[in-house]
Write a structure and sequence with these properties.
Length: 118
């Protein structure tokens, strides 16, 4: 079994189920937002259920992947918030997780558990 298959395929955010795609969003490149690389995308929660997708590119450091997961999850939960607020909150939370050693800038995502995506 491919180790990426162990990651969740969907999640409910604010009462709406999103498919989770562990890859780079189609036609997108990573972007820097206030010192953190975001490599993901969240579709509009008003989209039909078949089109609600949260993309996260997992081939990066824990810090960047977790920050992307937080960032895109915040969009799914709180769609009405502006990009600046989403970025501030995601950066703050990932910064705290790094300080308490739950995530690291040095480790690749997946190295903290019994599986590796690389």
């Amino acid at each position: 079994m491919n180790t990426i298959d162990k990651l969740p395929k969907s999640h409910v955010f604010n009462g709406k189920r999103y498919k989770i795609r562990w890859r780079r969003p189609p036609g997108r490149t990573p972007k820097e937002l206030k010192g953190h690389k975001i490599d993901g995308l969240c579709s509009d929660p008003r989209d039909p259920a078949t089109n609600r997708i949260l993309y996260v590119f997992p081939d990066d450091t824990e810090e960047n992947v977790v920050n992307t997961i937080l960032h895109e999850s915040l969009h799914a939960e709180l769609w009405m918030l502006d990009e600046e607020t989403i970025t501030r909150v995601a950066n703050s939370l990932s910064g705290l997780l790094e300080k308490i050693k739950i995530i690291s800038k040095e480790r690749q995502f997946g190295q903290f558990s019994n599986f590796s995506i690389t």
